[in-house]
Amino acid sequence: MARLNQTLSIVIPTINEASRLSLLIADLNRWHHHLEICICDSLSSDLTTFIAELAGAKVVKVKEANRGVQLHSGSCNTTGNWILFLHADCRMPKNWEEVISRKINEPTSKDYAWFFDFKTQSKSIEFNLLELAVNMRSHLFSRPYGDQGLLINRDLYDQIGGYRPLPIMEDLDLIERLSKEVKIKSLGIPLYIDNRRWANTNIITQAWKNANLRRRWRAGESSKSLVIEYYKN
User: CB burial class (10 A; 0-12, 13-18, 19+) of residue 220?
Assistant: First the structure.
């Protein structure tokens, strides 16, 4: 294993993610160097924080259900030269440790932001088409979203102002500011996304709904009003 000259912090926002967080932490434990994991929890009523603390992660508690606030708090409570932002319900590929350690050790990597390719845990045609559409958007237009993770050097993150305290569209807001400053590149490996958000809805309908919410946000509609609609059953 090559010597690592950089340090890595992982920031994960959570709300009642006990059943999924333990699986992600098991993936992260394959990291062979010092690793700082920060769980930014918002009002969990299950064993999320217990699992995080048992695994040796730092737990930061946020008093409101606001992912932008959680991500910002996590970044402020970590010390690594690099930050990897992840959602709690994702799973890492087998070779993630090798790819990330090599990437953060390359001097030129700090001049870019990095994302994972979108991969669902389903083999259905509908989900395959969704993966294709998301990855085309990400690669052609440099618009990966939060569930694809984000690896970024701390200096670059601070330079663009980090995550803003938005309850929704916090990832799009950050990516749009980032894309004005640097190129956003793929790590060339997948991040496996939980299918739960599409479990009780039509994929095309949900994708259209999300696109419409993004359009309205870009048109100036408040994220506080959009978040109610986004989480409405």
Answer: exposed
Residue 131: CB atoms within 10 A of its CB come to 17
What pLDDT digit, counting tens, does each position of 45-80 carry? 999 999 999 999 999 999 988 999 999 999 999 999
| pLDDT tens, residue by residue, 203-229 | 778 888 888 989 999 999 988 888 888
Fold of domain 8-199: Spore Coat Polysaccharide Biosynthesis Protein SpsA; Chain A (3.90.550)
Q: Find the distance separating the first CA and the last CA of the chain, reported in whole Å.
A: 47
